[in-house]
Design brief:
Blueprint: H1 5-13, H2 18-38, H3 42-51, H4 60-69, H5 85-95, H6 102-109, H7 120-131, H8 140-149, H9 151-168, H10 175-192
Helix pairs in contact: 2-3, 2-7, 3-6, 3-7, 5-6, 6-7, 7-9, 8-9, 9-10
The chain binds fe (ii) ion (2 copies).
Length: about 190
């Protein structure tokens, strides 16, 4: 790692308004707690959470340029801009902050959408983003309760809330989120068998 954790925290904090930094700290705490509970590496969870929203407040034209130039999935450009900061954030984490661990980069890349066969770290960062203490949306307390004992059930409930919200607002659903949810449900069925 090129920079110390403190230097990284300072650099990330400068990229966002104070309320988003408070969210980032909440996700860091939640991700470390989940990592300890479910047997992932807490140091990786902490770093991925620290960087997950690094590009959240970047200008959309700058994000679009990175998506085009770095050949990130062009499909993103047809979907909600709120999805862009995740893959752009992974790019920034690698090329500006020197993160080389592919597991950490993937956890950043897929923290909003999810993906098929999510790794343990992917699931932890994605769930931590839903349940950090500053979050307040219908059903969040139920997801927090599930997260105490059932990582995958909690994450499915998180995706359910996202998808329900989009359905209600008559907005398009990013296909990778549906794929992620199906994949989690399938692995839960297989684990029961
Ligand atoms: Fe995010
Ligand atoms: Fe976030």
């Amino acid at each position: 790692m090129n920079r110390s954790r403190e230097e990284l925290m300072k650099a990330v904090r400068e990229q966002m308004p104070e309320h988003r930094w408070a969210h980032t700290e909440g996700v860091m705490h939640a991700a470390v707690a989940l990592a300890k509970r479910y047997g992932a590496d807490p140091v990786k969870a902490d770093l991925a959470a620290l960087l997950h929203d690094v590009a959240k407040y970047w200008r959309t034209d700058k994000m679009e340029q990175i998506i085009r130039e770095q050949l990130l999935p062009a499909e993103l450009l047809e979907h909600d801009k709120s999805l862009w900061h995740a893959p752009v954030g992974a790019f920034v984490a690698e090329y500006e902050y020197g993160i080389t661990d592919p597991e950490i980069l993937d956890a950043i890349r897929y923290h909003t959408s999810g993906r098929e066969n999510m790794t343990l770290l992917d699931r932890i960062v994605c769930l931590a983003d839903y349940i950090e203490p500053g979050r307040d949306f219908p059903g969040v307390d139920h997801i927090r309760e599930l997260a105490e004992h059932h990582l995958d059930q909690a994450l499915v409930a998180g995706f359910d809330s996202t998808i329900s919200f989009l359905l209600e607002k008559k907005r398009r659903i990013f296909p990778l989120t549906v794929i992620a949810r199906n994949s989690l449900l399938l692995s839960m069925e297989n684990n029961q068998a």
